[in-house]
Amino acid sequence: RAAHEIVLPVPLTFLALDGCAELLRTVETVRTRYGNPGLRISMVVPTFYRRTNLAHEILEKLKQRFPKEIAHTLVGYHVRIDEAQSRGLSIFEHAPTDRGARVMAELAEELELRARFFFCRLVGARLDLLEHLLEGVSGRGELGESRLPDAERRIVVLDAQVRLLEFHQAP
Predict the structure, then answer these.
(1) Burial zone of 128 (CB within 10 Å; 0-12 exposed, 13-18 middle, 19+ buried)
(2) Tens digits of per-residue pLDDT, 6-44?
(3) What is the spatial distance between Cα 82 and Cα 75, in angstroms, rounded to a whole number?
(4) Strand runs labelled E in 16-153
(5) Cα dist from 36 to 1, 40, 115, 119, 144, whole Å
(6) pLDDT tens per residue across span 36-82
(7) Model pTM score
(8) Do the beta carbons of residue 49 and residue 12 sit within 8 Å?
């Protein structure tokens, strides 16, 4: 099954802009030559952010090129993220209280929020109604408290959204 969207991390360095341009050409090739016209860049994530003139200049260029796709969350350089990668762990496993973990959690929440809005636009659904329908599935108790942790509840809701989307797209 082919991918439908891309989250594009872009280091705020001069050479990364060239790589970004090359990737855009590759995405266009996949759309046209390989029959995946729905492939889209859903989020551009600025990484290795520093407070320098060059980083701000590159960030502005990314905002101009990707006005709707640019992430609001800027990911700086975090040693703990590099350490986690070198150990084959996520930042949440390696250093869950580190600032890098908080930034990655913010980024994940932003991506989830964008997915919800995209889904709503695509099928014309209202998420509040969908979540109401899913209360029994996600384990709401009599007093309204969730028996599932928030992260698991979000996964249940997103999974249901994907299933509903697939149902609407079925021939």
Answers:
(1) exposed
(2) 999 999 998 998 898 899 999 999 999 988 998 989 899
(3) 13
(4) 40-49, 75-76
(5) 11, 9, 19, 19, 43
(6) 998 989 899 999 999 999 999 999 999 999 988 998 889 999 999 99
(7) 0.68
(8) yes
